[in-house]
Amino acid sequence: MTTSTEHLRGTDRPRILVLRALGLGDLLTGVPALRALRRGLPGHDIVLAAPARLATAAAATGLVDRLLPAFAPRRAVPAALAWAGPSPDLAVDLHGNGPESRRPLARLCPRRLYAYSQPDAPAWQDDEHERERWCRLLGAYGLSADPADLAVPAPATPSPAPGAVVLHPGADAPARCWPAERFAVVARELSRAGHRVVVTAGAAEGRLAASVADRAGLGQDAVLGGTRGDVPFDVLMALVAEARCVVVGDTGLAHLATALGTPSVTLFGPVAPRLWGPPPRPYHRVLWHPDPDDLPRPGDAHGERPDARLLRITVDEVLDAVRTLPVPPAEAGARPAQAAVPSAG
Question: What is the distance between the alpha carbons of residues 297 and 288, in angstroms, rounded to a whole number?
Fold first, then answer.
């Protein structure tokens, strides 16, 4: 799969342009909708308008033929799309719910446009899981879409740490970052119990991951990423696919664990799990402590301080969740034997 615009010229196959110019977690929650497009319109090329850094992730889904680089800061909508050649046969807005995200698609004069907030579309619902939202949109246009059909294939790349517990302390906003010192205690206790622990870091998260590893007494060889950009996606996929479990905030790596069927413990704060959490499977655990009268989005997901609900999650809760995680039945024979996990003390 390429990221050039020249490949859009001269193809005989009808093309679907999908706008979802967001992050890794957004791409993975869009997998059921992308799969519905692939199955419902099998003779079409699917072109995804998304950040160029997601090219390998998009290709790994097996559902995207080409990536059209598109990005805007702070989850905004790209002002224009660098589309070349004839207009798309179909344009699909999986980015938002308003004229800002429809406009760059409409400017390309597609034969058809699937989007919310237009006369032939269903009503937008704020209180709806992200996977269900986009499947419902496509269903209104006659494409059968299953929100639970979210799996992506595991890579052929070998894991750098088979059977490890993967901790990811970072997120793209402080509001969704559980404190580093608590991640460090979790890492130390898991290591003492005999687990190999890997601390992952995105491009700007190296110092955070190094701090967690140092406080836990793990050494810097326990850190993967954070120095020269993102971890290569095939390596990250392999690590998560063969992990004992992933402990992570509400960010992209949580959705990768869900897509690969890897056990996970996800820590929620400003946004409810019912909107962005994993499906209700016993090997995915969510921890969240809202106030009794909280709405599904009680906090600012992009705030500059850790959300109060996130801070209510204790180290003991996380360790207990890891300790009691089952191995998914389909993979029970393939995963290495696991050590017991203690309570903090």
Answer: 12
Write the pLDDT tens digit of every residue in 142-186: 999 999 999 999 999 999 999 999 999 999 999 999 999 999 999
Res. 339 pLDDT band, cuts 50 70 90: very low
* Tokens 């006369």 -> residue: 119
- In the chain, the DSSP E strands lie at 15-19, 45-50, 66-69, 90-93, 112-114, 165-168, 197-201, 223-225, 245-249, 264-267, 284-287
Q: Do 190 and 50 share a structural domain?
A: no
Query: Is the domain of 81 the same as that of 228?
Result: no
Same domain, 112 and 212: no
Contact 278, 258 (CB under 8 A): yes
- Whether residue 127 sits in one domain with residue 85: yes
Same domain, 206 and 323: yes
Residues in the chain: 345
Q: What is the pLDDT of residues 114-139, one digit of tens each?
A: 999 898 899 999 999 999 999 999 99
Is residue 222 situated within a structural domain?
A: yes
Q: Are strands 90-93 and 197-201 parallel, antiparallel or unpaired?
A: unpaired
User: Which candidate, 28, 182, 215, 213, places its Cα nearest to that of 224?
Assistant: 213
Distance CA 124, CA 136 (A): 10
Q: Is the pLDDT of residue 330 over 80?
A: no
Q: Do residues 95 and 175 both lie within one domain?
A: no
Model pLDDT, residue 327: 85
Domain carrying residue 196: 165-331
